Amino acid sequence: MTLPGAVPPQEDNPDQGVAWHYGDPFGEQRAAARTVAVVDRSNREVIAVPGDDRLSWLHLMISQHVSDLPDNTGTEALVLDSQGRVNAHMVLAHRDGTVWMDTEPGAKATGARGDEQTLLDYLEAMKFWSKVEPRDATAEIAMLSLIGPDAGQTLESVGLNVPTDTYGVDGLVRRMPGNTFDLLVPREELTAWWSKLTEAGARPMGSWGYEALRVEALRPRLGVDTDEKTIPHEVNWVPSAAHVAKGCYRGQETVSKVHNIGRPPRRMLLLHLDGSADSLPETGDPVNAGERTVGRVGTVAQHHELGPIALALIKRSIGPETELAAGGVAASIDPDSIPADTPGLGREAVKRLHS
């Protein structure tokens, strides 16, 4: 969607087709932190799954427990490969007899023969005799995100109800963690809803601001903060997107074992970058401790208060006091971003898990 004042993203930016910013990316972030901002996220792909067996079938396909997902609720979920590595991440909204799943543009999954498929093709191939009809609904549904302490008030001012629970769904609105609401609107009404929200006081914010606030909140993004080896525990997707107790989904054994043992090989941490450097690292750059590579750079962002920051997958043996270089730029670990370990089960329990 092309909007007045929108600055398009650079060619290597993953958010093509939506605004990078609207002239003042730091002011946009401040609005989201203090009042309310609206973000065009209409580049998200949407898959619709209607059919009588939609919940029982999805329960077998994805990492989250959805067999009893009530109407007008949502959740996050993953598709994993047989080794428990993340293929796809999606956010669900169950309403009107359909599960709507929004995901990254170009989402992929590993097929039964080890070949890479689009997420929709993977789901289609796994239908068998189930009464489901997954389809590409990107042309039907577009997403806007409303962020900030005044977001609920803004929704009410344009005649929309505010879900009370996280991942609750009410009509067009899905509540997300923090002061964030996603609006799943008919794509032909996208411009009209944008106008309503901005006229109600929401400040337009581009992907620059959205990504900076996402990094601050330690929320990973598939394909940017993950690589081909990432398992859910490394990027805080347990339990928000992966259920540790349910069985019978691809990759479940890895999820259960690593959760119970509590020792994923890496962890996603927030890095503070040297703001005096001539350039910033890029996604995929190595993180080094001296001459040793100890991690991988994910999202790099310019934050309105924190300055240059990044998410990075770092070996769990690296302590917060370690001096690091991310893509050649001096970096330090934010100690508040270090997740608490799941308590280990002890040697006998570990032996049983591996038996």
Short descriptors:
single chain, 355 residues, alpha+beta, 6-stranded mixed beta sheet, 6-stranded antiparallel β-barrel, disordered C terminus, CAF17_C, Folate-binding protein, YgfZ/GcvT, TrmE/GcvT-like
Question: Which helices and strands, and how do they pair?
Answer:
Layout: H1 25-34, E1 37-40, E2 45-50, H2 54-61, E3 73-80, E4 86-95, E5 98-103, E6 108-110, E7 116-118, H3 119-125, E8 135-136, E9 141-147, H4 151-157, E10 169-170, E11 173-176, E12 180-186, H5 190-199, E13 203-205, H6 207-216, H7 252-261, E14 266-273, E15 286-289, E16 292-303, E17 307-315, E18 324-326, E19 329-333, H8 347-354
Parallel strand pairs: 1-13
Antiparallel strand pairs: 1-9, 2-5, 2-8, 3-4, 4-5, 6-7, 9-12, 10-11, 11-12, 14-17, 14-19, 15-16, 15-18, 16-17, 18-19
Helix pairs in contact: 1-6
Region (Disordered): 334-355
InterPro entries: CAF17_C, GCVT_N, TrmE/GcvT-like, YgfZ/GCV_T_CS, YgfZ/GcvT
Domain GCVT N-terminal: 28-158
Brief overview, please?
With 355 residues, the protein is of the alpha+beta class. The protein has helices spanning 25-34, 54-61, 119-125, 151-157, 190-199, 207-216, 252-261, 347-354; strands at residues 37-40, 45-50, 73-80, 86-95, 98-103, 108-110, 116-118, 135-136, 141-147, 169-170, 173-176, 180-186, 203-205, 266-273, 286-289, 292-303, 307-315, 324-326, 329-333.
